[in-house]
Amino acid sequence: MRNWPRSSSWKRRIMSASTELKRFSCPDWWLKLQRGEPPMADVPLNAKKAAKALAFFNRLRLPDVPGNPPLSEACGDWFKSILVAFLASEDPVTRERLVWELLCMVPKKNSKTTYVAGLGLTALYVEDAPNRQMLLVAPSQNISERCFEQAQGMIRLDERLKQIFKVQDHLKCITRVKTGTKLDVKTFDTSIVTGEIPILTIIDEVHELGKKNKAQAVMQQIRGGGITMQGGQVLMITTQSDEPPAGIFRTELDKARKIRDGKGGDNPIMLPVLYEFPVELQRNQEFWRNEKNWDCILPNIGRSINPKRLYDDYINNGRVTKEAEQIWASQHLNIEIGVGLGGDEWSGAIHWDACAKAGLDSLDKLLARSEVCTIGIDWGGADDLAGLYVIGREKHTKRWLGWGKAWARPSVFEQRKNIAPRLRQFEENGDLAVVATGEEQAEQAAAICKLVFKSGLLPETAGIGLDAAGIALLLDALEAEELTQPLVQAVTQGWKLQTAVSSVPLKLEGQRFIHGGQAVMAWCVGNAKQTLRGSNYIVTKEVSGAGKIDLLMALFNAAMLMFLNPAAAEQKTVRIYV
Q1: How many Å apart are CA 311 and CA 289, to the nearest integer?
Q2: 349-562 has which CATH code?
Q3: Is the whole model's pTM more than 0.85, yes or no?
Q4: 289-311 tens-digit pLDDT
Q5: Which of 24, 212, 215, 188 is nearest to 102 (CA)?
Q6: 529-553 residue pLDDT tens
């Protein structure tokens, strides 16, 4: 086995997890990948069901490859392990199914669409229940047609299968003649689940659902079958997203990683199979740019993937620009786009995730640990976000502590539909409030400022820093709370924020600035781009383009005031926390 790099915490995680593994946890997933094994937990199987499913799957033939080889030869063992775990898992004591859901994330061109078409036919064949419904769902018409064509082609290559299945081309429906159970191939939309709850749903390219409104509601409806007596399984297979993961995909990916790492609770129902590098190696661009390190996360290399052509494509197409490289790496190597990736990101981004600490997930916790606070606010119009960020200087340690809040109006969701699912997720987390009017937005921000003021932790001068543009409503709301100059100050933007742009990363690198790991803040940090203008590095909305960075700009405003080394005003009231 190649001498692959390991993170400093890898051995510790292996040792701590070796005593008692939680269901579906796989602490040695990176070691398994290095050995060429699927990165998944061992699952107990019903041997008879597994043999039946595997025998049927193996006889299927590839319809679009010369010679039409059977899957017994053309499919790698990695997918066959997934197939039997999903279709034949069984608790050896209770005899009940264990794997109700499975998320497989595997890079592009590993034949996942063809293989899931074969898995769908296999599931239809081995299901004994009569007159049930199964779904194979794709995010676009092109992908759904590709899935159906592969399944249809496999049937038409085998005279016996033509008798077992009835194919309705115009409906993209395949029926098991003996049972009447149907496999419908559909394009994802909010009306795909009608009538009977499906007993099995396969979702291809689930990362695309993160970009769709109401995807969470549809997923919940699909999962409704799981609580019935008959049960309902869900298999999701996808590449990494070509944008920072969002919406339902972000939710499912985070859940899968927690289960894999033994942090997903005592009785998870999802089996994670994630072909990805550890996060430390995803951030090590020298590592993942080396083609010698690619094979462990490309299970079909040498089958559907020609390694030389893959490398040539990277050199000739993937590396033409930094943006092209990000997208190429996300699709072919499952490198997650976001914090710490890219070439022109804000220099603090690479350290942001590592500074997330427990115990800072609310404003009251930050206030309780602070000796003085400053507040930065970045305001927004009707089609933009507004952000407020509080920095506290911790008692005794003098570390900086961070917490933020964002606002959006309904018009943002209409005018910026590409980020609407992501914003809804932040709303669910409680980090973003959706308000009807600018007045309501200003009142809520002023109320937080008043709360911090009443705690006695704001300095008498320069405690609240604002971008001076478009803040009339905010100034009115602050004045109504009796928060005015010199407590409230304008913070000059542009190159004059250089101190914050360049110095905050140094605090993050040394863990002298910690925060609660709010998803909305990580998103803003990941969106931020910096550029050299004259002799100063700047981060502005213009430089960062369409990416929202409002909370980061609020952080910079608060940081500029904290760099003044303020002291808290004399506490005049009892602290009140939210």
Answers
A1: 10
A2: 3.30.420.240
A3: no
A4: 999 999 999 999 999 999 999 99
A5: 24
A6: 876 555 455 675 544 444 588 999 9
